[in-house]
Amino acid sequence: MLTSSRLTVGFSNLGHTYTHLFTLLYPTVVLALEREFNRPYGELLTLALPGFILFGAGAVPAGWLSDRWSSKGMLAVFFFGLGGSAILTGLANTPWQIGAGLALLGLFASIYHPVGIAMLVSHATNRGRTLGFNGVFGSLGTAFAALVAGALTDWISWRAAFIVPGILAAATGVAFLLMARGVRISTAAPKADNRDVEHSRAVMIRAMIVLIITLICTGLIYQVTSIAMPKIVADRVSDISVSGALGVGGLVTVIYLSSGLAQVAGGYLADRYPLKLVYLLAYLWQAPLYFVAAVLGGPALLVASAALISLNVAASPAETILITHYSPAKWRATALGGKFAVALGVSALGVPAVALIYDHTGGFFWLFAGMGILAGVAALAILFLPGRLRDRTGLVKPSAASPLAAPSAGG
How far apart are CA 206 and CA 252, in angstroms? Predict the structure, then answer.
């Protein structure tokens, strides 16, 4: 018999793959659209901006609807909406129609993170390990987006790069509804964790202010890198045979696959070492490495890119646990929605940033330099999180005399 936990974990992990795969199809497809519409790269890439804005902005209402209505219903809407909007994008005939399709795709993709991650946390015993394993599925989506888009574009057409995955997502929605009949799925009653405590308002506000700053920086770093990577490979890896969209997509996939286990390692570290320390080191090491990567090319750039992406995704489990730790359990999906609204909404600025920097400089040196600065700012901000770096949990625990000292009811 299929249990609630197995259903939750299975479809949540699959949803994470779809989220990152669908939102990153266009950065590879756009390489073919330069020829299709005879428009510059920067101009066509900017069509994705509304979609990335909605990818972040839709997270808070999606989390709220999950808390107040149904997490199972929201996950079904996610699968069907993602599939339908991808198919519409593939049927577009003008750049503006493509932009409208991508906007819808971003809106439906925004459902996953606050709903799917909250569902996982509610069923997890070892949250770091569970989130790390889930992160691998997200990394697979990011890794295979370029390969899937490149292969379908070269073998069939750029339209197939959206329509074929769209049909798959809609079919997954049908399978989810059939298998979830009679199964109760919830985010409202997460299991207890030995680091779950209620905090004073002052501690929570301080933590959230710091985390908002880090989320702005880390969200921009992740999204800018993901968006720009196909073009970076096409321009800077000239000494490796790269032929067409498939060749570029293949190398981008290799980069992301090589960093795929980093979230598992990050989850392992988050379960066993101070969260604040794990979170800090991930960005402290990134800052200088971005400046090194700014001047690299060929195989060295591929290695450096894999290392940077590994460090970025390894921080994710610790970051998510920190968010859930400093938010009330009954509003966990909403709080995670806020996290992704900040990280993904602000990161939409990465689309015009990539377009403007490339069109004005003809390269990506200043983009890498900017990412290095953002990583440094994030590391500095993390130092101001509540708690000490060497604490076993890396978190603040309230005084035993405080009425808030008891563990939260929901865990």
Answer: 38
* Structural domains in the chain plus CATH codes: 4-188+197-382 (1.20.1250.20)
Q: List, for residues 75-93, the tens digit of each pLDDT value.
A: 899 999 999 999 999 999 8
Task: Give pLDDT tens digits for 232-275.
Answer: 887 777 655 555 666 777 788 888 877 767 878 888 888 888 88
What is the four-CA torsion angle of 106, 9, 227, 222, rounded to 10 degrees?
110
The residue ranges of the chain whose pLDDT is under 70 are 1-5, 8, 121-128, 182-201, 238-246, 260, 328-341, 343-348, 388-411
d(CA 389, CA 405): 21
Distance of alpha carbon 151 from alpha carbon 170, whole angstroms: 21
Q: What angle do CA 197, 200, 203 make, to 5 degrees?
A: 95
pLDDT of residue 299: 82
Query: Would you state the pLDDT for residue 162?
Result: 96
Take residue 82 and report the two structure tokens written for it. 């993602």
CA neighbor of 305 nearest in space, from 288, 289, 282: 289
The reported pLDDT for the residue numbered 103 is 94
Residue pair 79/173 in contact (Cβ under 8 Å)? The answer is yes
CA distance readout (Å), 81 to 46, 85, 344: 22, 6, 19
